[in-house]
Design goal:
Elements lengths: L2 H26 L9 H32 L1
Length: 70
């Protein structure tokens, strides 16, 4: 399995987590900047972590596609 395929699978997984936690935060009124309950803090951290995973895996996917083309 190539690096691009792995990065793409990670990107898809992180995007699903991002969407699910974002919808949960919107429906339950969780503010990521507010110090709430432990569950609210955990969901907020998971949401922000998924953003960084998405950005990193997208960059790896693009980089591997570019490097494989040369």
């Amino acid at each position: 399995m190539t690096m691009q395929k792995i990065a793409t699978k990670v990107f898809v997984g992180a995007s699903l987590v991002f969407g699910a936690t974002g919808i949960f935060m919107a429906l339950s009124g969780i503010d990521p900047d507010n110090n709430g309950t432990t569950l609210q803090q955990l969901i907020g951290k998971l949401f922000l972590t998924s953003v960084f995973v998405i950005l990193t895996s997208f960059a790896l996917s693009v980089a591997s596609k570019y490097l494989n083309g040369k």
